User: What shape does this take?
Amino acid sequence: MASTFALLITPVADFDIRDTYADTFSVIDASAPALSVGELSTQRGDGIFESIGVSGGHPQEVMPHLERLAHSARLCDLPLPNIEQWREAIAIAADACGEGEWVIKLILSRGIEHGPTPTAWVTAAPAGDFAAARRDGISVVTLDRGFDSGAPGRAPWLLLGAKTLSYAVNMAAIREAKRRGADDAVFVSSDGILLEAPTASLVIRVGDRFVTPRPGAGILHGTTQISVFSFLQAKGYEAVYETLPASALPRVDAAWLVSSVRLAAPIHTVDGTTLPMDSALTAELNAYLLSPRD
Ligand code: PLP
Assistant: This one.
């Protein structure tokens, strides 16, 4: 989806809540070239990003997204984002969003090769149409991520758990899922532990318990999953983080892929096995996820 709004940010390292950062932003033409050919984000995918869902002009869960951006920056040895500066930039981008659902992307790159500063920008664009996935559900296949569950601790340079710009592998996994006739993929560690989808968290239901894989397993801690858990807990359900074997997935009472822009897509088939779908709860979840949550 082409961006309709873009804002370049001159990153300011020092945090001072009294400052206003308006003079560090420049609104640019979203349809015109803007990055240097020396950009390490484009040459090496060396940077981090966030995608924030916007509903009716309201950017959802801004602080959890900025906290995760800071977490990714720490894992990648990038300068820590100045939270107030990014909040101001997001507010400006949200003002540029129209009715309905939009997506604001935050990008922090290591910058130009041998350059002195990171490059940072924010875009806003209309969101894709996920109505059918939310209503009718999706099919998934499980795919081996190729790492065992000890890899995140043993090899932190793999950056598992950081939301980096190196998403070529995630996109390849979705293409492989489509080649196998499914809509999306769920990654499994090489020792058989359920992880996440290439662009979403996995939430499953067994009875009145809702479970998601632990973020420590080298997966992203999803802002949508955190919202879903607080919604479910407020309704009196148990919602917990657990290590789950891949063999559990075809036997659950319901499962969803959840993420900031698609929101909650129920899974109707996993590796060819049909799963029950709870359409009423899914509709409630999506109504909640579309309402201003923070
Ligand atoms: N896991 C991965 C790999 C993702 O790329 C995403 C979102 O893009 C998520 C999980 C879900 O995160 P969020 O709910 O914050 O969008």
About this structure: The CA atoms of residues 195 and 242 lie 10 Å apart. The mean pLDDT is 95. The first helix runs from residue 40 to 44.
